[in-house]
Amino acid sequence: MKGRNYAIIVAAGQGKRMGTSVSKQYLMLGDKPVVVHALQAFDEQPVIEAMVLVVAPSDVEHVKNDIVRKYGFKKPVLVVEGGQERQQSVYNGLKALVRFEDVDIVVIHDGVRPFVTGQMIQDSICAADKYGAAVVGVPVKDTIKKVDGQQFVVCTPARSELWQVQTPQAFKYHLIWEAHEKALQDGFCGTDDAILVERLGHPVKMVMGSYCNIKITTREDLILAREFIAGGLV
């Protein structure tokens, strides 16, 4: 890989489904907040130059003092304000990377996925270096049904063709920038970054992740995450 790789960690959500006064990314998981687990995973990777941490505007000072300074990351961590939607937050993170002139690949990760591994990060970067765009995911275990507006089954897609998408998602910087610019112009809002690249007609490579690479959204997810740690699965 000739260029340099940077990470955008998205942690601007309010976590309303968690039902707690503290946003889910700042809840304690083991001996540190959820988002710190994710940050440390990227901080420990030699292939990552620096990280952009995108947070809610009201959290910027708290994060600078109680997360970045407190946990003493080895690599630079830029804290930037997020937007109303995740897509806007990622776009803000991409704009923050403009200060670096050597950005080749951008790895985008949810700050509430604490169990990302170095292997996932490296594999996604290698795939993005080769194909331009890559997403981590796992094959679905359950049969999936597509339904109509009245909840009647329309079809049953072949399970062998279905993957559950996770993060990290890695892209050539110029490609993901173009994809976000196009989405902004069209007024399109996607549920992940890969769909924005797909809209350009560019292929996206799937990379194997882990069933432990969960996204902490509800109380049940937090309980499961703590069980993973207690059971030595992560």
TrEMBL record:
| InterPro entries to which the protein is assigned, alphabetical | IspD (IPR001228), IspD/TarI (IPR034683), IspD/TarI_cytidylyltransf_bact (IPR050088), ISPD_synthase_CS (IPR018294), Nucleotide-diphossugar_trans (IPR029044)
Q: What is its EC number?
A: 2.7.7.60
**Hey, where's the site called Transition state stabilizer on this chain?**
R17, K24
* Pfam families per UniProt: IspD
Q: Which PANTHER family match?
A: 2-C-METHYL-D-ERYTHRITOL 4-PHOSPHATE CYTIDYLYLTRANSFERASE, CHLOROPLASTIC (PTHR32125:SF4)
> What task does this protein carry out?
Catalyzes the formation of 4-diphosphocytidyl-2-C-methyl-D-erythritol from CTP and 2-C-methyl-D-erythritol 4-phosphate (MEP).
Q: Which UniProt keywords apply?
A: Isoprene biosynthesis, Nucleotidyltransferase, Transferase
Q: What protein is this chain from? A: 2-C-methyl-D-erythritol 4-phosphate cytidylyltransferase
Q: What class of enzyme is it?
A: transferase
Output the NCBIfam families linked to this UniProt entry: ispD (TIGR00453), PRK00155.1-3 (NF001183)
Q: Where is this site: Positions MEP for the nucleophilic attack?
A: R159, K215
**Catalytic activity, per the record?**
2-C-methyl-D-erythritol 4-phosphate + CTP + H(+) = 4-CDP-2-C-methyl-D-erythritol + diphosphate
Tell me which family the UniProt entry assigns to this protein: Belongs to the IspD/TarI cytidylyltransferase family. IspD subfamily.
**Listed pathway(s):** Isoprenoid biosynthesis; isopentenyl diphosphate biosynthesis via DXP pathway; isopentenyl diphosphate from 1-deoxy-D-xylulose 5-phosphate: step 2/6
Picking any one GO molecular function of the record gives:
2-C-methyl-D-erythritol 4-phosphate cytidylyltransferase activity
Kindly state a single biological-process term from the GO annotations of this entry. Answer: isopentenyl diphosphate biosynthetic process, methylerythritol 4-phosphate pathway
